[in-house]
Amino acid sequence: MSHRNARLTVHGRRLLVERVRSGRPVAHVAAEMGISRPTAHKWIRRWRSEGESGLIDRSSRPRSTPHRTAASTEAHVCRLRQDRKLGPARIGPILGLPASTVHRILNRHGLNRLAHLDRPTGQVIRRY
């Protein structure tokens, strides 16, 4: 699904392609549809290379995150939090990580509040 501010939906892109295929200039069709010429050319180029599937919305999610903290390091951070009840400022120097990174890891795993941990077991509990 297109985002809220997108000028063209999948239907609009198909309409763009049909109008250009009928022999009309890309610049004129782009002006009619309220998009820039480079954007119109982008959709035409995608349609030519991929066909109808090139007009479908694509994910804008990054394909990779090369600097993401390793899963083993994240597990170690979580273990230290649950076993020793340490905060980001104490866990960071132990593992050689910035406190901000440790804090983000704890947030991601729902371990950011000591009050949410069962004192004896260290398991996550949320009362409300």
From TrEMBL:
Spans annotated as Disordered: 52-75
Pfam family for this entry, one: LZ_Tnp_IS481
Residue ranges annotated for the DNA-binding domain, each copy included: 2-81
Gene3D superfamilies, sorted: Homeodomain-like
Protein name per Swiss-Prot or TrEMBL: Transposase
Source species of the chain: Streptomyces variegatus
